[in-house]
Design brief:
mainly alpha; Topoisomerase I, Chain A, domain 4; DUF5610 domain-containing protein; DUF5610
């Protein structure tokens, strides 16, 4: 039996100064990833009777909604469920968010040559994505929701993310003149 979920955001705190400035942070990115994971979990039936996991789940959804209310409005988790969650669209969001940090990374590491900076950045980003996909798989496996289309879509998303990172790295590795012409 599926349960309706009401959302409330008291349990999750965000860096309000950064959020108010509209900047994307690693913490916000992780929070958005967690929202996506919780969205995926929302379709799983959880029995209420004496099940502490149901209470934990409802509490987490409520807290996420409250934390995101100021930036994303009421019922952020439910509204996010309406977005395109296809493997390609999800991969595009992951690649866009992660690659958006590259210029900041380069500014914070001015002593590094461009090729070395790109390699170090890509290693860090790919490592983070690997960890994120592993954690998502573990969560879904724990919820007995990792089968069939879910597993196949995770694999497709990962493939699209990998291609997106490869494409980004190739563009960034081009000489400046070629980038401007492209």
């Amino acid at each position: 039996m599926a349960n309706s979920v009401s959302l409330n955001s008291k349990a999750i705190s965000t860096d309000s100064k950064v959020a108010n400035q509209g900047e994307v942070t690693a913490a916000r990115a992780k929070l958005q990833l967690n929202v996506s994971i919780m969205e995926a979990s929302a379709t799983i039936s959880i029995g209420v009777g004496g099940n502490p996991q149901a209470l934990l789940y409802k509490s987490a959804i409520t807290s996420i909604n409250e934390a995101l209310r100021a930036e994303l409005g009421e019922n952020a988790v439910q509204n996010a469920a309406r977005q395109d969650n296809s493997p390609q669209a999800t991969a595009d969001r992951i690649v866009s968010l992660a690659s958006g940090f590259y210029e900041v990374f380069k500014r914070q590491n001015p002593q590094m040559e461009d090729d070395a900076a790109l390699q170090k950045f890509m290693d860090a980003v790919k490592g983070g994505v690997e960890q994120g996909f592993k954690e998502a798989r573990d969560i879904l496996k724990g919820l007995n929701a990792l089968g069939g289309d879910v597993a196949a879509n995770i694999d497709k998303t990962y493939e699209f993310v990998t291609r997106g990172f490869d494409s980004f790295a190739a563009r960034m590795a081009q000489p400046k003149e070629e980038k401007e012409a492209a």
